[in-house]
Amino acid sequence: MGDIKASASDSSMYVLLIEGKIAEFNQRKAAGETPELQNSDFRGADLRNMDAQGVDFTKAYFRGADLRGLDLRQSDLHGASLAQAHISGAFFPEELNAH
C-alpha cells in the first residue's frame, strides 16, 4: 500500500462514502460538487448505488469494497487496486485490463 495516501480523508465527499451516506454523496455530486477521490482508501466500503460517473479514482484502493452494480465506464481507474472487491454486475472502462 505504499502509494496509497490519506489525501482524500479531508474531503467531505470521501467521508460521506466511507460513512455509507451514498444518497447524500449523489445529491452533492448532482449539484455540481466535484469529489476528490484520487489515492483514496475504500477498503471494505459499501459503494453500491454510488454515482461514479466521471469520478477520478486514480490509485484508489478498493480491497474488499462492494462495487456491485456500479457503472464505472466513465470513471478513471488508472492504478486502482481492485483486489478482492465485490464486482458482480459492475461495468468497467473498456481499456481496463483484466490481468
Distance N terminus to C terminus?
A: 19 Å
Number of helices: 2
Major sheet characteristics: none
Low-confidence stretches: 1-7
Which geometry do the CA atoms define? globular
Layout of secondary structure:
Blueprint: H1 12-18, H2 22-30
Give a verbal description of the structure.
Helices cover 16% and strands 0% of the residues. It is mainly α and 99 residues long. Helix 1 (12-18) packs antiparallel against helix 2. It is globular and about 35 Å long. The protein starts with 11 loop residues before the first helix and ends in a 69-residue tail after the last helix. Mean pLDDT is 90; it is low at 1-7.
What labels would you give this structure?
single chain; 99 residues; mainly alpha; 2 helices; 0% strand; globular; disordered N terminus
Summarize the structure.
With 99 residues, the protein is an all-alpha fold. The chain has helices at 12-18, 22-30.
